[in-house]
Write a structure and sequence with these properties.
This protein is α+β, with helices and mostly antiparallel strands. The chain has a domain of 78 residues. Helices cover 19% and strands 27% of the residues. It is built from three helices and six strands. It has a four-stranded antiparallel sheet.
């Protein structure tokens, strides 16, 4: 993982304005990655750093468990939805609301512009 200012890139949490997660029903978690300007959004979009394979790797889940992973140009945002490893409220669930699951996305490295 590189640090900000490196010629290799910087972590996504230094480029995006908001990275958040929440339940999308009891069996899925959805993520929003939002940007406050089109230059940063387009940089990330062009880089291809947000794709199903990287999301699956970041969450250590099978590729087919990444249900949605796509950009939304009008909102300067990416939407990702994955299958929850256990249902919300299950006795093995560690985050019933799904609001703390965004952390692995923060470290994705966005290549330098």
């Amino acid at each position: 993982m590189s640090t900000a200012g490196s010629n290799l890139g910087e972590p996504l949490d230094r480029v995006a304005k908001v990275i958040r997660s929440k339940n999308a029903g009891p069996f899925e978690i959805t993520f929003d990655i939002m940007f406050d300007d089109s230059m940063r959004y387009e940089r990330v979009k062009r880089s291809g750093v947000i794709d199903k394979a990287r999301i699956a790797a970041a969450y250590r889940i099978p590729l087919e468990h990444v249900l949605i992973c796509k950009p939304f140009d009008a909102a300067l945002a990416f939407k990702i939805t994955i299958r929850r490893p256990v249902s919300s409220g299950d006795w093995m669930d560690t985050d019933v609301y799904g609001c703390q699951q965004h952390v692995p996305l923060t470290g994705l490295v966005v290549p330098a512009a």
